[in-house]
Write a structure and sequence with these properties.
There is one protein chain. The chain has 134 residues and is of the alpha+beta class. The protein has 4 helices and 6 strands; from the N terminus they run αββαβαββαβ. The chain has one domain. Strand 1 and strand 2 form a beta hairpin. The longest helix has 12 residues.
Length: 134
Amino acid sequence: MPTCSLFVFTLDLEIEFPSHARNARKHSNTKARNLLVYPVDKPELPPFKMPHRFRTDVAYFMTPAGEEGVPELAAGEYWVRLKDARRWLDELVFEVVSPLAATSTAEIELTEEQEQWLEWMVEHEVERIRLEAE
C-alpha cells in the first residue's frame, strides 16, 4: 500500500531588495492587510487584530460544524473550542491533516500572531468568532 510522507524544510535566507522596492513597501496601505477578529458572544470586548492571511489560517483552528458542542453558526462565523485553544497554547503547535491521506498528519509551530490570538481567546473565554477586514 502506498504511503505518504511529509517533509518540512526551513531555509534561512537573507534577501536584499532594491531601495525603490523597500520604499514602496514602507508606503503601502497596511490597513488593507489586517483582519479584525470579533468575539460574537461578547460584543463588549474589542476585536483582536490579525494579519490578512489569517482568513485562511482560521480553518486550521475552527471546530467543524456537527462536532459535539458546536452551536449553529451564521455565515462567516467560526467556532474554536476553548479546550483546543488551551492545548495548542500548551504545546505551541497545531496538527494539520494531509489532504492526500487522512492518516498523515504534521505538527506546525504556532506563529507569534497565532499564539497572541489564542492567548486572547483563552483569556476572554471566546469560542465563537467573526472575521472582518479592517
